[in-house]
Amino acid sequence: MTTTPQTNTTLKALAEEMLQRDDFLLCGHVSPDGDCIGSQLALMHALRRAGKRVRCVLAEDDSAPEPTFSFLPGFAELLHPSDVSGGVGVFVGVDVPTVERIGTAAALHAKASLRITIDHHAVDSTMSELVYVDPDAAAAALLVWELASYLVEKRDADIAQCAYTGLTTDTGRFQYQNTDAACFEAAAQMVAAGADPALVAREVFQNRSVASVKLESLAVERMLFAGEGSVAVSWVAASDFEELEATKADAEPLVNALRGIQGVRIACMLREQDGSVRGSLRAKDDTDISVLARSYGGGGHKAAAGFTLREPLGQAVERVTRDLQELAERTAVSPAHEGAQQ
Ligand code: 5GP
Ligand code: MN
């Protein structure tokens, strides 16, 4: 476990500070994923068990909360920023490192009396007075799970179920490079506390809409390869979403189809959305694709990152494929080295 230079507290000290306060507003990032929502709700339950007044807010007004996670306790309570009235006590950003990534909730963040960041995305700056960022943590949910141990005597099934959902989604069901012993240790504690792995798997991973699977079939048909098959890129257009009545969330799993292909080291899925192009990047080896995401104005982790390009889809596909080909060539493992590894 390491923390970033911006980190100026410990989870224990954070809990002590939180126990002195009463009114909390918890927020995650735009396009919330399982770790974002799971961490937020886990912390909500923990703070409430500690007797605190807590509200959870989504980062944006115009996006519906991801229905995949509606099975989580507390999901129905997620507010939109415009629903939040009155003053803001302590604003806690979980799984989100920058003001840009909290979308329109930034206005609420600005008027909070204290700001706290609990995250696992390393960035150079910070938006909060109290910061705890551990980029080695596989999920923000792991940090919230530990924090909760200092907030309540016994972490209950609601806290555990939400945290487990964050952990299992951010580790890709304990398959990604970020999966380490700490994940399994925490998962065991969560299951012992009442998390239900089969229920989470059924709700999150065995619950795709037909539109999502059809979107994937389009993406598979359109796959482009570069770098001798080590790079796979594909795309879906706004018109595909319209024709299939598909949502943004329906496109989330598509990058996994590319990642799953033999020989592919780097996968990139592009989707036309709100007049721009959203990109999801994944690396299966040690290649740091967050550098490329940042060069496009996005960010993320070494093996999973994202970005938005404000240019036509065709142009974005060409640019990204070219840049990934170059990256793959620069980071290619020589055949001799590859042989030595086996
Ligand atoms: P996804 O491809 O699932 O949208 O994102 C993968 C990872 O990159 C997640 O950890 C996500 O938070 C991060 N990420 C995605 N898009 C952006 C972006 O535009 N900016 C930043 N800073 N991080 C992003
Ligand atoms: Mn996360």
Task: Describe it.
- The chain has 14 helices and eleven strands.
- The chain is α/β, with parallel strands linked by helices.
- Strand 3 (88-94), helix 3 (106-110) and strand 4 form a beta-alpha-beta unit.
- It starts with 10 loop residues before the first helix and ends with a helix.
- Residues 336-342 have low confidence and may be disordered.
- The structure holds guanosine-5'-monophosphate and manganese (II) ion.
Features:
11 strands; disordered C terminus; 342 residues; single chain; 40% helix; alpha/beta; five-stranded parallel beta sheet; binds manganese (II) ion; binds guanosine-5'-monophosphate; six-stranded mixed beta sheet
Runs in which pLDDT lies below 50 for 5 or more consecutive residues are 336-342
| Biggest sheet architecture | 6 strands, mixed
**Number of beta strands:** 11
Q: Give every kind of bound small molecule, once each.
A: guanosine-5'-monophosphate, manganese (II) ion
Going across the major beta sheet, what is the strand order? 6-7-8-9-11-10
Order of secondary-structure elements:
HEHEEHEEHHHHHEEHHHEEHEEHH
Helix content: 40-55%
Oligomer: single chain
The backbone outline, from C-alpha atoms, is globular
Q: Strand portion, in percent? A: 15-25%
**How many DSSP helices?**
14
Structural class: alpha/beta
User: What Rg do the Cα atoms give?
Assistant: 20 Å
CA distance, first residue to last residue: 29 Å
How confident is the prediction overall: mean pLDDT?
A: 94
